[in-house]
Specification:
- The protein has two domains: 103 residues, LON domain-like (Archaeosine Trna-guanine Transglycosylase, Chain: A, domain 4); 81 residues.
- Strand 3 and strand 4 form a beta hairpin.
- Strands 1, 2, 3, 4, 5 and 6 form a six-stranded antiparallel β-sheet that branches.
- Helix content is 34%, strand content 32%.
- The chain is α+β, with helices and mostly antiparallel strands.
- Pfam families: LON_substr_bdg (PF02190).
- This is Lon N-terminal domain-containing protein.
- It comes from Williamwhitmania taraxaci.
Length: 200
């Protein structure tokens, strides 16, 4: 089934949000205060296209407003958003009709991002990553969303964007495996330091 394009209000940022990831944002520009007030009034979702070091990219994430954490008398806010799905930007306008904020046409980014790669699952268990409240609970028999795994470890915005934009599930798995290996190395070093400290 081919996705149809849709219009979203767009809030470009140098942050990449995975589906199901929560991210706090500080809202202080007039155009984005207007956007979030519209979101509060209508319940609409909006999009966050990723701004890389090279400029605005064609990938981003549709998000929803989870909560307004704080608001002052100037209308500035701290909000919590949550990722829904990744999209490709087809067109972008700096201002939507009658609005201060921008928007554009997007289409859902439908690529395979599920894995049951046994090497990845071994590292998930080794790192004790929390899935559904159970640490290191994934088995090699079940498939899991690569983005769910990546969301459990620290990746820079550029690394997140790179993972999403990689073509082919095998190449995505290879990149994620390297990131998990690095996290495992850090964990091992931390455990050695704690062990050495306790012996002194």
């Amino acid at each position: 089934m081919v996705s149809k394009s849709k219009q979203l209000a767009l809030f470009p940022l140098p942050s990449f949000v995975f589906p199901q990831e929560e991210l706090p944002l500080r809202i202080f520009e007039t155009r984005y205060k207007e956007l979030i007030n519209d979101v509060k009034d209508t319940g609409m979702t909006f999009g966050i296209p990723f701004i890389s070091a090279d400029g605005l990219t064609q990938l981003g994430t549709e998000v929803r407003l989870e909560k307004v954490l704080a608001e002052n008398n100037k209308g500035e806010m701290v909000i919590m958003i949550k990722g829904i799905r990744i999209f490709e930007v087809l067109s972008f306008s700096n201002r939507l009709p009658g609005k201060l904020y921008g928007g554009g046409q997007v289409i859902d980014w439908e690529v395979d991002h599920e894995t049951n790669n046994p090497d990845i699952m071994v590292l998930v268990k080794q790192l004790g990553l929390n899935f559904n409240g159970i640490y290191g609970s994934l088995s090699t028999m079940e498939k899991v969303d690569i983005y769910d795994i990546a969301n459990k470890i620290y990746l820079s915005p550029e690394e997140k964007f790179h993972l999403v934009s990689i073509d082919g599930i095998g190449r995505k798995e290879s990149f994620l495996y390297k990131m998990l290996q690095f996290q495992a190395l850090i964990k091992n070093q931390e455990e050695k330091l704690r062990s050495n400290f306790s012996l002194n």
